[in-house]
Specification:
Largest sheet: none
Number of strands: 0
Radius of gyration: 19 Å
Oligomer: single chain
Distance between the termini: 44 Å
Length: 240
Amino acid sequence: MSRSRELLLGMRDTIPMLVGALPFGIVFGTLAVSSGLSIGATLAMSALVFAGSAQFVAASLVASGAGLVVILLTTLIVNLRHALYSASLLPYVRHLPQRWRVPLAFWLTDESFAVVHRHYLLDKGPLEHKHWYFLGSCLAMYSVWFVCTLVGVMLGQALPGLGDWGLDFAMVATFIGIVVPLLRNRPMIVAAIVAGGTAVLAHGLPFQLGLMLAALLGVAAGVLAERAAGQHRMTMPEAE
């Protein structure tokens, strides 16, 4: 397909994810301002950080009075999953020049990864213009996220109690929709179970440290399960 068709197709296929991101972005805008962030800082975070879960964690840590080091370390660990995303997409983008890979890496989100990775897996055609599909998905998410943050900031000032309406459930629903279809092998399932169980058990830890611990243990469990599966394949006798 042509570049423009791939771009538009990537935008179109991301629409279901945008529906889940709409309330997510609005709620972030309201919660960030109510947490003590200025309007400029809130909008700058969506424009320059562009990582929904990390932005929520950072806003909650600011509200709780956490120090800068705790905020940086927590958001870093929460975003470690992007290293796994990058490893999964590397075979499809390694041929691209740096001017393409850098912005695509910045714009990569959970939603775009789910859409783009599925497209690469299902469409076995040449890679010539597929990065335009990647770009279309990213631009759709980026523009909608920023606009929703702006709407949330304005609504948060007009309706100060909006953050108490329970709309943050959209974040949970969105991540469930992203994660469940990706649980296709044992390491992924092990990582999800360990991370989820740790998050529940460590929920009471201060400064959102439960999320940090869940992310670390989930990644570690997935890596160990992958290594164990690799060793098992190596030791299995060849079929005659």
